[in-house]
Amino acid sequence: MAEEHSELEERIIIKDQHTKEIDLVNRDPKHINEDVVKVDFEDVIAEPVGTYSFDGVWKTSYTTFTVSKYWCYRLLSAILGIPLAVVWGFLFALISFCHIWAVVPCIKSYLIEIQCVSRIYSLCIHTFCDPLFEALSKICSNVRVALRKEI
Question: Are 41 and 62 in contact (CB under 8 A)?
């Protein structure tokens, strides 16, 4: 009975990972697009003092810019959003697949192989270099250096 209950909880957890609720109000909860340029009418079009157009033209330009930007974005996201989501999902699945099945095994294989090489390298260093440097240290141990300040 407890085993069946555990399996049911496991299925619910797995299902929740793929069907979790998304926030329709805050669509950038991790703020990954904070650095993206947020372009408003005032950021693109400005009239310096003394060269004003008619008020009606200015208001219409503002409305046209804002509405066209809004609807163009919505239209592009409606047409290309789902296909691009498929492309990006496939790309990140491919990257994950390559990382799991190729990169990590290659790194682990390299670490295992380099461990064997490092033992051989260490043995060679201790066999050939240690006696040489020990002999050099004994030769240089009797060297005395005296510093004098002459006036």
Answer: yes
pLDDT tens-digit profile of 62-109?
999 999 999 999 999 999 999 999 999 999 999 999 999 999 999 999
Cα gap 49→65, rounded to integer Å: 21
Token pair for 48: 């310096």
Q: Please say whether the beta carbons of 66 and 41 come within 8 A.
A: yes
Which residue is associated with the tokens 């682990």? Answer: 108
If you compute the radius of gyration of the chain from its CA atoms, what whole number of angstroms results? 35
What does the chain look like in DSSP terms, one character per residue?
Answer: -HHHHHHHHHHHHHHHHHS----SS-S-TT-TTTTS----HHHH----TT----HHHHHHHHHHHHHHHHHHHHHHHHHHHHHHHHHHHHHHHHHHHHIIIIIHHHHHHHHHHHHHHHHHHHHHIIIIIHHHHHHHHHHHTT---------
